[in-house]
From TrEMBL:
It is found in: Membrane. The keyword tRNA-binding does not apply. GO terms for cellular component: membrane. Its main location: membrane. It holds the Pfam family MBOAT_2. This is Wax synthase domain-containing protein. GO terms for molecular function: O-acyltransferase activity.
Length: 202
């Protein structure tokens, strides 16, 4: 999915820049640097695409400050805005899934997935603060631990959303070639297994 988004972004730039419809500065990199994603917060805030960032933060600030009355600049307000951002993002992605599949399968799971990211970031911030109070400083080793943590979290949480969408038919691969080496090897070995034949008695 990310590769498809990046391809469309690149194709649009290739077409519109030579026609002087847009300049190169209008097509910045769609995704950030992978090396910046050593926390879940940084992964969503820097590494992943920021196409909806302005839309989400603008509405989050409005609901948190103007509607709910939280004071601007307070720490609690920033976390309320964080949860609202991911809640709205969950609704947007759930709506997109419904528009594509024509079913609500995966809608609630999409909402749960994105709200879980806010829960994770909140807990992650707390753990990082505890580490700083204990005297831990950022280093190459802490970043490696961070990369492992982010990959583990995404591997754990992503199926909450992706499996329900797959059941709804978003990734129907019945006509696609087998790309998994291990699974392909098992199927090939199974198809080549000798069959036993019974000898008929004379």
């Amino acid at each position: 999915m990310a590769a498809g988004m990046l391809l469309m972004h690149s194709l649009a730039a290739v077409v519109t820049v030579p026609l002087f419809m847009y300049g190169p500065e209008d097509w910045p990199n769609m995704f950030g640097r992978v090396r910046d994603g050593y926390t879940v917060r940084k992964f969503w805030g820097r590494t992943w695409h920021q196409l909806h960032r302005r839309f989400l933060t603008m509405h989050a600030k409005y609901f948190a400050q103007d509607v709910m009355g939280f004071a601007r600049g307070q720490r609690l307000t920033t976390y309320v805005e964080l949860f609202i951002v991911f809640f709205i993002s969950g609704i947007v992605h759930a709506s997109g899934g419904y528009a594509f599949l024509g079913t609500f399968s995966g809608a609630m799971e999409s909402l749960v997935f994105f709200v879980l990211q806010a829960v994770c970031i909140t807990c992650e911030d707390y753990v990082i603060q505890l580490g700083k109070r204990a005297g831990l400083k950022g280093s190459t080793w802490t970043r490696f631990i961070g990369y492992a943590w982010v990959m583990a979290w995404l591997a754990f949480s992503n199926p909450v959303r992706s499996e329900s969408l797959a059941r709804g038919g978003l990734w129907d691969q019945t006509d696609q070639p087998q790309l998994c080496f291990v699974q392909g090897l098992i199927e090939r070995l199974g198809s080549r297994a000798p069959t036993r034949t019974k000898l008929s008695s004379m």
